[in-house]
Amino acid sequence: MNRRISAHYVFPVNSAPIRNGIIEIDEQGSIVKVINPGKEIKEQAGVEFYNGILVPGFVNTHCHIELSHLKNKIPQHTRLHNFVGYVSRFRNTDEQFIRKAIEKADFEMQKNGIVALGDISNNALSIEIKKKSKIKYHTFIETFSLDPALADKKIEEAKKLQQKFSMNNLDSSIVPHAPYSISTKLFDLLKKIMQENKSPVTIHNQETASENELFKNKSGILYETFKSWGIEFQDFYPTGKNSLASVINYLPPNNNCILVHNTFSKKEDIQQANTKLKNIYWTFCPNANLYIENSLPDIQLFYRENQKCCIGTDSLASNTQLSILEELKTIQNYFPEIPLHELIKWATLNGAQALNLHSKFGSFEQGKQSCINLITGIDYKNMRLSKKSTIKVLV
Ligand SMILES: [Zn+2]
Fold it and tell me: Cα–chain-centroid distance for residue 164?
């Protein structure tokens, strides 16, 4: 028998929120229809009613689940140049310990209503968990090296790792880590692969001010720190431009391109990027930005510029939890202008489109999978989340 589920508001996402809307789902777990009861709300037989709003399952477009064992390991506000050092120092440890932490993080995300995930991987440790998880994963196999002599080797390693994911029926793409960690040679090789594959790609973008400084004048704290570690910038050429404008020609123009963090991106960065790339999805991980740099992107600017935005949690190395709802609360707190229905769209349909998963996820539409989250503690008068808002997975 079909189930009918209702709440104070239903957010189908592909259309406006519906007061006392009803979602009908079949026994296979597909959405049959979304009903707008109109002004005359009659008692409907067999309808389950919940206090709160119903939103589709969340799509997290940026995480590194393989860093889950670093929870509470790295101090807050150390800034990116130090954070990178902490991660490389702590990341390699007992594999069983790492796998346990990955499994726990996967479970935490399921509990927090995340149904699909764009996850960065440098190794195969997450494969077994991804295979059996209820979450639909798209893995971004990350490459980085500033040494041009290593570029071919890095690509070979990435291809081998991709094969392991493919053998387990897990979708993946090979991607660059960040503008500041890739030699020109490696970028050239990556561009060819990304263009051929046509699948979604991602890169960390303008996460720290010193990333722009590096490209403008080959200076700044990021440059100094890397130099002090003995990293040579032999195949790196300052451009006099911001980092995004400097590397944009290496990104495939027609793929879905998920730009992550954007903490120091300005209006000119947004405009320039849009002249080169057709399908940009700006992903924000505000709690990680506060954790590492203690600053936030100008998220309101992206909203006003009508950009497609998405939400990520980043990893437990730079976050205390993996919850899209908590990221939305932070955005709403700092940028109250952005309406709730817009934030919900970023956390659902935009993310599903970015990962090419929108035929199944992202909105309440006929034929899509019925992943239904209940959010409680809503301030209905202003249609906002409250500090007390919590999430419960209904279906
Ligand atoms: Zn990241």
Answer: 23
What distance in angstroms lies between residue 63's CA and the mean position of ligand 1's atoms? 6
Per-residue pLDDT at 122 exceeds 80 = yes
In this structure, CATH architecture of domain 3-55+368-393: Roll (2.30)
316 CA distance to ligand 1 middle (Å): 10
From the CA of 205, how far away is ligand 1's center (Å)? 9
Q: Tokens standing for 247?
A: 């590397």
Cα four-point dihedral sign 187, 189, 192, 194: negative
62 CA distance to ligand 1 middle (Å): 7
Q: Which CATH number fits domain 58-354: 3.20.20.100, 3.20.20.140, 3.90.1180.10, 3.90.1300.10?
A: 3.20.20.140
CA 273–ligand 1 middle distance (angstroms): 20
- Cα of 332 to ligand 1 centre, how many Å? 22
- Residue 40 has a pLDDT of 66
Indicate whether 281 pLDDT > 70.
Answer: yes
CA of 207 to the centre of ligand 1 (A): 9
Give distance in angstroms: CA of 123 to centre of ligand 1: 15
Give yes or no for residue 123 having a pLDDT over 80. Answer: yes
Domain with CATH 2.30.40.10 in the chain: 3-55+368-393
Question: Residue 39 has what pLDDT?
Answer: 74
Question: Burial letters for 9-31: b for 16+ Cβ neighbours within 10 Å, e otherwise?
Answer: bbbbbbeebbebbbbbbeeeeeb
Backbone φ and ψ of 284, nearest 5°: -110, 135
